[in-house]
Amino acid sequence: MGLLNNDISLVTQVTVFHNRKAFDLLVKKYQSPVRLFFLHQTLGDAQLSDDLAQDTFIKAYTHMQSFKGASQFSTWLYRIAYNVWYDYTRSHKTTTDTDTPFIASKHAPQGNVGLQMDLVKALRVLSDNERTCVTMQLMDGLPIDKISEVTGLAQGTVKSHLSRGKQKLASYLKQNGYDR
Amino acid sequence: MTDKRTDFFEETQQTDDWITDSLPLEDEQLLKSFFADNTIEELPDDGFSEQVMASLPQENAYRLNRWWRLTCLIIGVGMIVSLRGWEQLPHWDLSSVRLFMQYFPVILSTYLQAILTSTPLLHGLLIVMGTFLTLGGVWGYNEVVDHPIHTRHTSPMP
Predict the structure, then answer these.
(1) If you count residue pairs, one on A and one on B, with CB atoms under 8 Å apart, how many are there?
(2) How far apart are CA A97 and CA A91, in angstroms?
(3) Chain B contact for A159, CB < 8 A?
(4) Is the predicted ipTM greater than 0.85, yes or no?
(5) Mean pLDDT value of segment B67-94
(6) Is residue B148 predicted with pLDDT exceeding 70?
(7) What pLDDT does A27 receive?
(8) Which of A8, A78, A98, B56 is 20 to 30 A from A175 in CA distance terms?
(9) Distance of CA A16 to the CA centre of its chain
(10) So what's the pLDDT on residue A103?
């Protein structure tokens, strides 16, 4: 409860008093999870992740008035991050659909910078939507309803992405000897 | 999942949502184990937050600056027009500038006094109109200049 009050207090200071120090505290608090989110989506591209994370925080700052407090600030921020990633994939979309691994492999850098190579290779087999849902659940610990709230996808769709994504990952891990 | 990661979402708790009916339990355990081994707990800041703060738009400071500049511009143009300043330009030299600096406060106070003590209603109306025109001009100027900031981010907000 103390943590929640602190976030609301900081958000209020930013929106009402334009207190940049308060926003700095919010950035320091949430920079790691936001950057990690992008690191997972970009398959370890640290530079791109930081750029997208920066865009996320700038958007949060300029649109702070639109945060009504209906959800937690962290969920709202996560939603912005997801929208930033969505915009990025759309603007860099090729003729193929985003539900195929082709675009996922395009994002992968030649040399891993931010993530372990095993994780990068494993995540590479997933499509963008599958990767988003799987990493949100298995790495960030979000329940399905929270994933649905962040992504704007129906819960049934989220479950479908999770199911397919986990099956692909499990097959990949077994083929590469991780179950031994 | 680590404590730090679950702290990020206060309501997050270990649920059974991750268990999907189609996936065998051993595969679920395999995935859990794999991600537990490869999860990064926390990224160090390394100047990231400073970079973000430096990139934030400085709207309020710009707005105040623009208000002041536009106000001074309007006052300056108004005074030049009312005092027919363009007729004096060909005759200006250093001594003229010195004289102007010397008598400017007198001229300004005389001008303001003439406005304030004038009795006809029309003069008062002109002042009010001039005030609204100034404020409207400043508002319009701010709207035009701030427009690129508000339309920069096009994706839907939550």
Answers:
(1) 148
(2) 13
(3) yes
(4) no
(5) 79
(6) no
(7) 95
(8) A98
(9) 28
(10) 40
B155 and A87 within 8 Å at the Cβ level: the answer is yes
Q: Are A99 and A58 in contact (CB under 8 A)?
A: no
Judge whether B40 and B119 are in contact, CB under 8 Å. Answer: no
pLDDT digits (tens, 9 = 90+) for B6-42: 444 444 444 445 555 568 888 888 988 888 888 777 8
Torsion of CA B39, B44, B47, B49, to 10 degrees: 70
Q: What are phi and psi of B105, to 5 degrees?
A: -60, -35
Q: Any idea which residue has 């304030």 for tokens? A: B116
What whole-number distance in Å separates Cα of residue A96 and Cα of residue A116?
Answer: 28
Q: How far is CA B84 from CA B76, B87, B106, B129, in A?
A: 12, 6, 17, 21
Whether residue A178 lies within 8 A of chain B, CB to CB, comes out as yes
Between the alpha carbon of residue A125 and those of residues A23, A112, A169, B1, the distances in Å are 37, 16, 7, 22
Q: What pLDDT does residue A142 have?
A: 87
Residues of chain B contacting A163 with CB distance shorter than 8 Å: 20, 22-23
User: Using CA atoms, how far apart are residues A115 and B21, in angstroms rounded to an integer?
Assistant: 30
Name the stretches of chain A with pLDDT < 50: 1, 95-112
Give the per-residue pLDDT at B90. Answer: 67
Quick one: average pLDDT of B80-101?
75
**C-beta atoms surrounding A1 within 10 Å:** 6
Residue B88, token pair as written in the block:
């004096």
